[in-house]
Write a structure and sequence with these properties.
This protein is α/β, with parallel strands linked by helices and 321 residues long. It is 24% helix and 27% strand. It has seven helices and 22 strands. The strands form six sheets. Strands 1, 2, 5, 6, 7, 8 and 22 form a seven-stranded mixed sheet that branches. The protein is elongated, with a radius of gyration of 21 Å. The protein starts with 10 loop residues before the first strand and ends with a helix. The N terminus is likely disordered.
């Protein structure tokens, strides 16, 4: 379904983002006859759209491809009356109600808002890396660690995220090589000491990845590395490369309008209630990876998407649709 070019009316609710949390929110809001408008954003489908086999989402005993799961959610939301629209939000004004959304050539108004714009994984942005995402290159150890069972792998990064990924992956991989571009690590002392003490983890400092080998075979075969001090190149045979260099929350447009943590994630209480200067914003809710930096799983994103939609329904009932 598509939205007309101009919309003279005020929407009951608009959902920013079409990942797992946004689409779950759309399903619940649509079943409540709110006719939610979902703005798909610059990464339609979110992280699941670049995930291959999803084996930890309940109800799929044999697993399901990430893009297929997203398409199923979209179809389910549309079936109940949700409107999906390819659009990118330029700016938003939460200082007045109904809230005003600027799409560039068009302005939308809404009585309530669900922010589900997610967080984007940080990548090395190598062509070979991008070509192998979902084929041995991953930004989620919890999601894909099982597939590395019995194999030698690499983790990129030097912060707590990289240490956590490396330690978790020792459950599956025979050897984990942690690659850091400098000899200094941003990780907390306790996390770094745990990784150093683990017999399955080895460190390569002052090293960067120049190329992920295996594009023609459509699976990671090795990494071509370069020492940043000597410029010496080498090849490290691995079957997986995991990125542990963090995520970027898609919340810049809310700076100054909502409370964010130091890394830019939306701060919430009660799972889905954002604040501004510690005060709730009536009718505005946040869900999924935009406010969850701890779990970042499809099932937890779906759960908070459900919560946000139920709160929208309650808000609109209390304030008169």
């Amino acid at each position: 379904m598509s939205e007309p070019a101009t919309t003279p009316t005020t929407h009951d609710t608009i959902i920013l983002g079409s990942g797992c949390s946004g689409l779950t929110g759309a399903i619940y809001a649509a079943r409540a006859n709110l006719k939610p408008l979902v703005l798909e954003g610059h990464e339609p489908g979110g992280q699941l759209s670049i995930t291959t086999l999803v084996e930890n989402f309940p109800g799929w005993p044999e697993g399901i491809q990430g893009p297929e799961l997203i398409e199923n959610m979209k179809a389910q939301a549309v079936r109940f009356g949700a409107i999906l629209r390819m659009a990118h939000l330029v700016s938003i004004d939460l200082s007045k109600h109904p809230y005003e959304l600027n799409l560039g050539r068009e302005t939308l108004h809404t009585r309530s808002l669900i922010i589900a714009s997610g967080a984007s994984a940080r990548w090395l942005n190598l062509p070979s890396e991008q070509a192998l995402i979902g084929h041995g290159v991953s930004s989620c150890a919890t999601c894909d660690g099982f597939f590395a069972s019995g194999k030698e792998i690499a983790v990129i990064g030097g912060g707590d995220s990289a240490m956590e990924e490396a330690l978790f992956l020792t459950r599956f991989a025979t050897k984990v090589t942690l690659i850091n571009r400098t000899e200094n690590f941003r990780a907390s002392r306790i996390m770094l000491e745990r990784a150093i003490a683990h017999p399955q983890i080895r460190f390569l400092s002052n090293t960067v990845v120049e190329e992920v080998l295996g594009v023609d075979e459509k699976e990671v075969k090795a990494l071509r590395l370069r020492n940043t001090k000597t410029a010496e190149e080498s090849v490290l045979p691995v079957a997986f490369m995991f990125l542990g260099i963090g995520h970027i929350p898609n919340a810049k447009m809310f700076s100054g309008q909502l409370d964010l943590d130091p890394d830019g994630y939306i701060l919430t209480h009660g799972n889905v209630f954002p604040t501004h200067h510690g005060q709730d914003i009536p009718g505005v809710f946040a869900c999924g990876d935009i406010q969850d930096r701890r779990y970042r799983q499809a099932i937890t994103a779906a759960g908070t998407g459900c919560m946000a939609a139920l709160e929208v329904e309650k808000f609109l009932e209390q304030h008169g649709r």
